[in-house]
From TrEMBL:
Homohexamer. Residues 373-691 form the Phosphate acetyl/butaryl transferase domain. It is found in: Cytoplasm. The N-terminal region seems to be important for proper quaternary structure. The C-terminal region contains the substrate-binding site. Its main location: cytoplasm. It catalyses: acetyl-CoA + phosphate = acetyl phosphate + CoA. One of its GO terms (molecular function) is phosphate acetyltransferase activity. Its EC number is 2.3.1.8. One of its GO terms (biological process) is acetyl-CoA biosynthetic process. Pathway: Metabolic intermediate biosynthesis; acetyl-CoA biosynthesis; acetyl-CoA from acetate: step 2/2. The keyword 4Fe-4S does not apply. In the N-terminal section; belongs to the CobB/CobQ family. In the C-terminal section; belongs to the phosphate acetyltransferase and butyryltransferase family. This is Phosphate acetyltransferase. It comes from Leeuwenhoekiella aestuarii.
Length: 697
């Protein structure tokens, strides 16, 4: 079930706040707990907090700390990009959003504002964030200063961009459209949008466009002389009081802002008197220019009036002040109740999201992005913290990954090796090793060493293993770590950074053994591509599997796929698709496919099939039009190790995909092998999937 929605815009000053406020009220009418999140906020100029967040939290009384409602300021984003740390941005955004998703029934996410130095990147950034959060989008665009073609064209481009990235667009809102053009805008949008996308148009509303007195004071650095309790007064239009009073009064309109030099007592007093007269419209405030303050008798007269509007003194001249007031981009503040009420009223009149909400609450995100997959792995690992042993305790990469894992409280870690050598290595590479959080065991000094030796002897004496041989083997870190799992002193093992695959797996095959009904230990990689996660198997263990073994690898891989939240659609890869190919290799794949269909009719499988037909929708439809797997395969089974190993490495290198694994499947307890060229991230991810495997036992 989808638990969030993302409001995105095309440009600055689109007025998306009106949509946020209206949608929040709609959601709160349907569920008690609605959260609010802004991935990126502007750097605040005049206050310490983002106005959008403060307004929503305050007005709707949301139980949410300010710091939890955003991830980064725009300047922080720029700094991280400049330092090559862009990956951290999405990680943090996903984590903070998921925390809110756990707390609330639904979360409203509001995109960035397109202001400041990094605004050129913001549209693409919002697309990327929405995709990685797996959220459908409401798209908002402004009609200010645009022709009909310009408005519709920009909205169509934006919609297509989201669609191309597999982000669902639920509604498109044309905002700030002239009243007489509302129907034209809606009809124009409907021409290129499917019926599943709701279309709305909201009129330009002067009350929302004009700033409050508070905003003007902040912009002009003014000094409030009177009426500080009324700074939230909403201005209408504004005019300069430079003519004689009798002429100026005829220019007053509702909520006019009076701008006049501070020594024009006639204009000041005349405007205040007009404000309390039933014959003239109300004014919102008075700006006194030139740094001039009325004389004392005038000030006393003002103080004695029964109704006082804000009167503000500024240092700039009248011409400068008028221009600056005209350029203020108004916002909605927490205590701007008139603006909020206006926004909600206009929204309720022009927009109805009730049916839309009922439809999209059950909307599933399309696919799964790598960062979504990784976040899900960490979350699952934390649900039941497992104990993972890592035999290569003096490897710098192992140490770094272990420290990260325990700091995030994902797993319990035991490193194998000589304590002093491990500590020495940590100091050498400035790794903050905390011995209160990570256990370090030297196998031959362990209190369990003799018991492990005796156990190994009993298990392997039929293979002519005596006690001395058992002792030698148990001094080996791979054998010791595997025995920890066998004896229940650890839940899983990750090794291979400094050892061969054979060295890692052999002890597991000797006494952990395979699961009942499983004869083949195989492996899979979780290939985290730009827009999906695919399962590749077997790319690490079996050189030339038979048809029966290939079928078993496919079934094991499908079960692994399911265990990690990926719907298995199995493609049995070959150099031929369908029935056209001939030869021993393609016949073996065809036979393996038939075995899977017979043993597991519940699984979706296609084979033999070529790689492009398996993953490309157009090619798949062309070659196998009736297949429910072609073009959308999530589990790809390679016919041999040569093909599988080279393909996964080619995909990884050429596309920049993250390859998590190999994860071994078929063993009674989880043991996973690392490549000797592995990175800290590889180790980190492999430990997490090992912990999740252990949860399923």
């Amino acid at each position: 079930m989808n638990k969030g929605i993302y409001i995105a815009t095309l440009e600055p000053n689109s007025g998306k706040s009106i949509v946020s406020l209206g949608l929040m009220r709609t959601l709160l009418g349907k569920t008690a707990k609605v959260g609010y999140f802004r991935p990126i906020i502007d750097d605040s100029k005049n206050t310490s907090k983002d106005n959008h967040i403060s307004t929503v939290i305050s007005f709707f009384d949301i139980d949410l700390d300010y710091e939890d409602a955003y991830a980064f300021t725009s300047s922080e984003i720029i700094k991280k990009r400049n330092k090559g740390r862009s990956g951290e941005i999405l990680d943090t955004i996903i984590t903070k959003y998921k925390n809110l998703e756990d707390r609330f029934d639904f979360v409203l996410v509001e995109g960035s504002d397109f202001t400041g130095e990094g605004s050129i990147f913001e549209f693409d950034t919002n697309v990327l964030i929405a995709k990685n959060l797996g959220l459908p989008v409401i798209l908002v665009g402004s009609g200010v200063g645009k022709t009909e073609d310009e408005l519709l064209g920009s909205m169509q481009i934006a919609y297509t961009t989201f669609l191309d990235k597999d982000v669902s667009v639920l509604a498109v809102v044309a905002n700030k459209v002239q009243e007489e053009n509302l129907l034209i805008a809606k009809e124009g949008l409907s021409k290129f949008l499917p019926d599943t996308v709701e279309v709305f148009a909201i009129p330009f509303t002067e009350k929302l466009a004009h700033p409050t007195i508070k905003e003007i004071v902040a912009e002009l650095d003014g000094k409030v002389l009177f009426g500080s309790d009324f700074l939230d007064n909403q201005t209408g239009n504004f005019g300069v009081g430079a003519m004689q009073l009798r002429n100026y009064l005829t220019h007053l309109k509702e909520d006019s802002l009076v701008i006049t030099p501070g020594d024009r007592a006639d204009i000041i007093l005349g405007a205040l008197q007009a404000n309390i007269s039933t014959n003239y419209p109300r004014i919102s405030g008075i700006i006194l220019t030139g740094g001039l303050i009325p004389e004392e008798p005038i000030l006393k007269l003002i103080q004695g009036l029964s109704q006082i509007v804000p009167i503000v003194s500024v240092n700039d001249g009248t011409f400068s002040v008028t221009n600056r007031v005209g350029s203020i981009k108004s916002q909605i503040y927490a205590n701007s109740k008139p603006k909020i009420d206006t926004s909600l009223t206009v929204f309720a009149k022009e927009v109805s999201f009730d049916k839309l909400i009922e439809r999209f609450i059950n909307l599933e995100p399309k696919g799964i992005t790598p960062r979504m997959f990784q976040y899900g792995l960490m979350k699952r690992a934390r649900t039941a913290k497992k104990h993972i042993v890592m035999p290569e305790g003096t490897d710098e990469r192992i140490l770094s990954a272990a420290v990260q894992l325990v700091e995030l409280d994902i797993v319990k870690i035991t490193l194998l090796g000589d304590l002093e050598k491990v500590k020495e290595k940590a100091v050498q590479y400035s790794i903050p090793l905390d011995l209160s959080k990570i256990d370090i065991i030297d196998p031959v000094k362990s209190e369990h060493f003799e018991d492990y030796v005796e156990t190994f002897y009993e298990l392997r004496k039929h293979k002519n293993v005596n006690c001395d041989i058992a002792k030698d083997w148990m001094a080996d870190v791979s054998y010791f770590g595997t025995m920890m799992i066998y004896k229940g002193h650890a839940d899983g093992m990750v090794s291979g950074a400094a050892h061969t695959t054979q060295h890692t797996i052999r002890p597991a095959l000797q006494f952990i053994k395979t699961k009942p009904g499983v004869s083949v230990v195989s492996s899979v990689f979780f290939m985290c591509l730009e827009d999906r996660v695919s399962v590749f198997g077997d790319c690490a263990i079996n050189p030339n599997p038979s048809a029966t073994e290939l079928a078993e690898i496919a079934i094991s891989s499908a079960e692994s796929s399911l265990a990690f939240g990926i719907e298995p659609k199995i493609a049995m890869l070959s150099y031929s698709s369908g029935t056209s190919g001939k030869g021993a290799d393609v016949d073996r794949v065809r036979e393996a496919t038939a075995i899977v269909k017979k043993e597991r009719p519940d699984l979706k499988i296609e084979g033999p099939i070529q790689y492009d037909a398996a993953v490309d929708a157009a090619v798949g439809k062309s070659k196998l039009p009736d297949s429910e797997v072609a073009g959308q395969a999530s589990v790809l089974i390679f016919p041999d190790l040569n093909t599988g190993n080279n393909t996964y490495k080619a995909v990884q290198r050429e596309t920049g995909a993250l390859a998590i694994g190999p994860m071994l499947q078929g063993l009674n307890k989880p043991v996973n092998d690392l490549s000797r060229g592995c990175t800290v991230e590889d180790i980190f991810n492999t430990v997490i999937i090992t912990a999740i495997q252990a949860q399923g036992l």
